[in-house]
Specification:
Elements: H1 7-23, H2 28-45, H3 51-62, H4 65-79
Helix pairs in contact: 2-3, 2-4
Amino acid sequence: MSVLDNWNEWKGFLGDRLDHAQNEGMNDQVISNLAFEIGDYLAKQVEAKNPQEKVLADLWSVASEQEQHAIANMMVKLVQDNGSN
């Protein structure tokens, strides 16, 4: 089973990665840019595995680049406190 199969597991996984990046001193702008790149890759290359991912992929597909950055930043906010630590 992939971490992408379950929305809560996916948020926890992202939260753990975010915690690690912040603990290593990665600044918010770098995190924001990485979130955008990951979101763009997932939307273009990975099939949605659950309804939440499908909604995100659909929103991403109709969003301008500025709106995509906003979606990526909202995902960062969403997972900030979802790490397992």
